[in-house]
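Box 3.1 A note on notation
Throughout this textbook, protein chains are presented in two layers. The first layer is the amino acid sequence; the second is a token string describing backbone geometry. Keep the layers aligned when reading.
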Amino acid sequence: MLTKPAAPELTTEVPRQGFKATASSAIGFALDFYDLYVIVFIAPVIASVFFPSAERTLSLAGAYVTLAATLIMRPVGAVLLGGVADRHGRKRSMVVALAGVGTVTALMGLLPTTHQIGVLAPILLLLLRLVQGLFVGGVFASTLTLATESVSPRRRGLASGLVGGGGTAAGSVLASLALFAALRVFPGPGFDDWGWRAMFLAGGLPIVLSFFVMRYVEESPVWKAPAAGARRPLRALLAPGRRRVLAVNVAVVFGIGTSFLLTLGFLPTYLQVVVGLPSDVVSTILIWVNLAAFVFAPLSGHLSERYGRRRVMFALSSINVFALPLLYLWLAGLRGDGPSPLVIGITLLASCLTVAAFGPLPIFLNERFATGVRASGTALSVNIGFALAGLVPTLVNATSGGTGRLPVFAAAGLFLAGAVTLACLSRTPEPGRGLD
């Protein structure tokens, strides 16, 4: 475990400061995941306008390549802006990252399609996604540390759940609302022409949040403590004897991230392509489902204060390794039933289980790194883990050979994700309670 000379932990909390830091971090995390959901919510449209193909699963694989492109570049952003967060403060890194994410996301809404400029269209989309990944890596570095470092120790699990899992659920709700509105403002063929553009343009909202953070949010009191920042955080993280901590964290995030991307991330496409629901019905279901699921991450994060970060994550992963694959296979057998209560119930249960597993993850990672390298270490763990996890939906779509076999391949991916998480957590000690 990374350590630095012992120092008394800062336990004094300014309630208003902690609230603003947690709220801005949660909103920033939600807006970041809004971008991720935009791609997966409208993957069929992105596939047709940027990656047209006679085989639908290959076209979908092209759409998910754009998701993987962003995820692959996030570790680079974690190094660059994570270093800024560790050396110069969480707040400065968050402002730069949010402004960058908002600008690049809005630019995607202005891109010409393959039918207009040919192969240059998907190339431009991929380039913007790569640049966006740099800034998103910085969002993870700042949001996942500023909140937990700004609240009192007894509220860190709750803050972790609100920012991590709560932010992911809120991002899904925002994307669902955007899809719901765009489908009604641009119905039918109009959505393929303008609706998806409006959803990307709405992704420019982080620019507004960056101004709020710059003006009203205080720097982390833990980071401002004497000798908190490291001059070379990446070198410290990769020092002999410390690499294993980072490697295990990456593997844990890969498992939880794969489960997340194949459930909350993949459900919009799965409900349309496999279950046969229209996109407007899917958007409505996911709004209510994710509103209900929102409470589970703060709950699991708070439970980790009493029972331990690792213990809560291990218990939830033990359930998910079997429950999520079975729920997906069950859902596939309901094709033609429409938006029945059973379809909605299965979707809700899968979403709640996934969100709950995410709740203690940020604070689990935070407590495994010292303050001087915490932003870089947490961001690298999350971004490398998600970069690897981002390849799984692409592989699932590309190798399934058609929508008929897609449920089996998705279920296999979910089982693999759960097995990896359990294997890593079983060999990982409970992190120490404290942010030195």
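Residues 1-13 have pLDDT under 50 and may be disordered. Residues 56-88 form the longest helix (33 residues).
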